[in-house]
Amino acid sequence: MRQLFSFTGGVKPASHKIESNRGVVIVAPLPNVLVVPLRQNAGLPSRPLVQAGDKVLKGQTIAGPGGSISVAIHAPTSGTVRGIETHAIPHPSGLLAPCVVIEADGEDRWIDRKPIDPYALPADELRARLRDAGVVGLGGAAFPSFVKTQHGPTQRIDTLIVNGAECEPFITCDDLLMRTQAGQILEGAAVLAHIAGAQRVVVGIEDNKPEAVAAMTAAAGKRSGLPVEVIAVPTRYPAGGEKQLIRVLTGIEVPFGKLPPDYGVQCFNVATAYATARALLHGEPMISRLVTVTGNVERPGNFEVRIGMPIADLVALAGPKADTDRNLMGGPMMGFALPTLDAPVVKATNCILAASKALFPPPGPEMPCIRCGACARACPMDLQPFEMYWFSRAKILGKAQEYHLFDCIECGCCAYVCPSRIPLVDYYRFAKSEIRAREKEKDAADVARLRYEFRLEREERDKQEKAAKLAAKAAETKARLAEAGDADDKKAMIAAAVARTQEQKAEENPSAE
Amino acid sequence: MLEALLVMALGSVILGGALGYASVKFRVEGDPLVEKIDAILPQTQCGQCGFPGCKPYAEAIARGEADINCCPPGGEDGIHKLADLLGREFKPLSGEHGIEKPKSIAVIDEQTCIGCTLCIQACPVDAIVGAAKQMHTVIASQCTGCELCLAPCPVNCIAMVPIPETIDNWKWKYPVFDVRKAA
Amino acid sequence: MASYLFIILGAVLVNNVVFVRVLGLCPFMGVSKKLETATGMGAATTFVLTMACGTSYVIDSWLLVPNHLEYLRTLSFIVTIAAIVQLTELVIQKTSPVLHQVLGIYLPLITTNCAVLGVPLINVGLKHDMIESMLFGFGSAVGFTLALVLFAGIRERLEGADVPVHFRGTAIAMVTTAIMSLAFMGFAGLDKFK
């Protein structure tokens, strides 16, 4: 039995898993119109490859990777592209972004699926396939998975951690996936391990999901070859945070400025492993995912949803109650309120949580910080939230950064325990985006400075070149004059020059003659 | 009395001599302060401060000839940083050099452009492309919004367009709910 | 030997140059906005004050007292200290650019630091010998640095605090100084080190 470690801090909110984790996965009906945003992954948005009027098949690539940290996007069903339109996407700003809008033809016809044998192909080829199949981290951040299987010359990956902790309250999509698709998850994890060069796979699951642990253990027992361990970890939010799970399972604390591969581990979500298996072993790109719809609805549950399905349609399937006042994407700790339900389901959508005043009573007014230190005890990253709050609030951003603001995973533990009900995470998000914007501005100013200096240099060079040319010409004329000697020759030269220019003019305008 | 004068005079002469010798012997060239000031300025090279570019303004600040509140594109934020660096008190932007505007970029109305190249010559960061009698256009990502191209254009075909808010440049808002404003 | 320790501890804590003797308040208020600058100023002051105490002792006991010119003490001390500061700056600038980057802009400020004149004058009053003078100067300067660094730490916090409008800036800094001063009064109980 593996020795388990512990991370500091964390909280134990009411888990509310029971509402949605009974029953089976419901396949959501195909909507008539699907809206597929071009920006679905962390990094750069994808580059569209289709135009209005194009016929597409289910699984056909409709957008290619837009940069080195970007993946492809695929048509979720067969139909006709209505166009590339700006449409609401699930983002806290409520701003519109370009999306490929597809009108489904109802036939749901696949492209020619080509399963491959991943163990016969080199790792680079497999990474390219993962990218082209649009596989991103499905735990919430949607970071391109193929990038995570790479490692630098000083790094190595020997333990692949599969994250089935699902620590956030209300969400059960990973739980259901593990119960129903344990074998496929392990197949996918084995492929990821093969690509990354890992020697073993460790699956971490919070112990409040005994059925999932049992299913995964059974599936692991049927496998041979790569050693797979399924470990139940103590239930404590945020055990499913990447760094927290690594710490619990291996005892490794990944420090500031380092990445897990620096310490020989890498972490993938169970749904990511499942998507990898679908993509490589079945040739099916990432076009659907499990989404938990829960909270203030009549029939909470897990739905298999095509990417691009309007969230409003999805919520309607679960029967929203009348007093629902807002809908969160993600869980109650880390999710954000959706400004509009027009937005489609994207790869990062793991949960839609309908909220009401009864379910989440509005917090009382924000009170001043009393420096009790409860937030620091709750912080799973060993940060000092009260310091970061103090400086973020006063907009002294440099100081906030000195307290490792960017190590904050925005898990919300500090705000959860705060007796003064300070929305701490909102302050961190504000400070982070402000710092990022300023850095961008600074970079732009540096580029402008370089370009300006280059321009000055060029102008100076042009001036010198011109001066040199003039000087050379003057010297030449002078020399010729000196050669010519007296005034008569000078006159002759001038006459010759005049004749030359006239000749030139005549050549230029032959029509004038 | 005479003694006192002598002692002080002697002391002054010796110390003065030592200082004079040291200032010649230990002379140091260069002024890193200008670079530091220049790094804070927004590099629009717009000349609104009354100096021909950001570097000359930085030099003027370092020499003490210019005040720190003459840079509208840098805004209050820039003045705060300058005040911090130079250990001076913050003062609000002086109105005579212009006001802080939302960040904009120049856009050429390509229907009206006659291809005179005057704006190309005016652009301090070479962000306008085009050739004589050809249509010109602004490279949006390089434009600093300095407005220097507006004046030379003979047909007024350049407009400053504020940068719209997109998913890329959207920022989380400051979370404080202002009680006084609400009341 | 123990008496030397008492001199230093007494100068640092019991008779802290800022909080108890109320000297050097202009740099204390002026250079305490940031922790880094406060540390730099403290280091520069420590160097200059130790040197100034030694030189002043030499001038006083070798030049002024034998010639019965004690009434020139203040004048000659000022001139000497100003010269030392300038000289130090020039030498450091040339020989150690890094140190100059740290101390650079604070050195000229020290010329006008009344603690640097006050401590040598106190030295004379206490009839310290050469070594005692320098230790006393060093101790006082460490006390000054301690006060400056503590205060800078507090002021960095004050920057983010909800201070009533009319108390912002120097006003709240003065109130804070007063409270810190009260705290340092507690060291008066260390009677031995007086």
Report on the structure:
The complex is a heterotrimer of chains A (513), B (183) and C (194). Chain A is an alpha/beta fold and 513 residues long. Chain A is 37% helix and 18% strand. Chain A contains 13 helices and 17 strands. In chain A, helix 3 (173-196) crosses helix 6 (270-281). The longest helix of chain A has 61 residues, at 424-484. Chain A is elongated, with a radius of gyration of 31 Å. The relative contact order of chain A is 0.12. Chain B has helices at 2-25, 32-40, 54-63, 75-86, 118-122, 179-182; strands at residues 104-108, 128-129, 137-138, 158-162. The model of chain B is unreliable at 178-183 (pLDDT under 50). Chain B has two domains: 32-97, Orthogonal Bundle (3-methyladenine DNA Glycosylase II, Chain A, domain 3); 101-164, Alpha-Beta Plaits, CATH 3.30.70.20. Chain C has a domain at 2-6 and 39-140. Helix content of chain C is 73%, strand content 0%. The longest helix of chain C is centred in the N-terminal third of the chain and has 30 residues, at 35-64. The two termini of chain C are 16 Å apart. Chains in contact: A-B, A-C, B-C. Chains A and C meet through helix 9 of A and loops of C.
Biggest interface, chains and residue tallies: A-B, 31 and 26 residues
> Under the CATH scheme, which architecture of the domain at 119-283 in chain A would be assigned?
3-Layer(aba) Sandwich
Order of helices and strands of chain B: HHHHEHEEEH
N/C terminus separation of chain B: 75 Å
The end-to-end span of chain A amounts to: 104 Å
The number of helices of chain A is 13
Please give a handful of descriptors for the protein shown.
heterotrimer; A: 513 residues; alpha/beta; Rossmann fold; six-stranded mixed β-sheet; four-stranded antiparallel β-sheet; 13 helices; 17 strands; elongated; B: 183 residues; mainly alpha; 3-methyladenine DNA Glycosylase II, Chain A, domain 3; Alpha-Beta Plaits; 2 domains; two-stranded antiparallel ribbon; two-stranded antiparallel sheet; 4 strands; disordered C terminus
Summed up:
By secondary structure, chain B is mainly alpha-helical. Chain B contains 6 helices and 4 strands. Chain C has helices at 2-14, 25-30, 35-64, 73-95, 97-103, 106-110, 114-125, 130-158, 170-185.
Layout of strands and helices, then pairs:
The complex is a heterotrimer of chains A (513), B (183) and C (194).
Chain A: E1 25-27, E2 33-37, E3 47-48, E4 55-56, E5 61-64, E6 73-74, E7 79-88, E8 96-104, H1 123-132, H2 145-148, E9 157-164, H3 173-196, E10 200-206, H4 210-222, E11 228-233, H5 242-250, E12 264-269, H6 270-281, E13 288-295, E14 301-306, H7 311-318, E15 324-329, E16 336-337, E17 351-356, H8 374-378, H9 385-393, H10 397-402, H11 413-417, H12 424-484, H13 487-508
Parallel strand pairs in A: 1-14, 9-10, 9-12, 10-11, 13-17
Antiparallel strand pairs in A: 2-8, 3-5, 4-7, 5-6, 7-8, 13-14, 15-16, 15-17
Helix pairs in contact in A: 3-4, 3-6, 9-12
Chain B: H1 2-25, H2 32-40, H3 54-63, H4 75-86, E1 104-108, H5 118-122, E2 128-129, E3 137-138, E4 158-162, H6 179-182
Chain C: H1 2-14, H2 25-30, H3 35-64, H4 73-95, H5 97-103, H6 106-110, H7 114-125, H8 130-158, H9 170-185
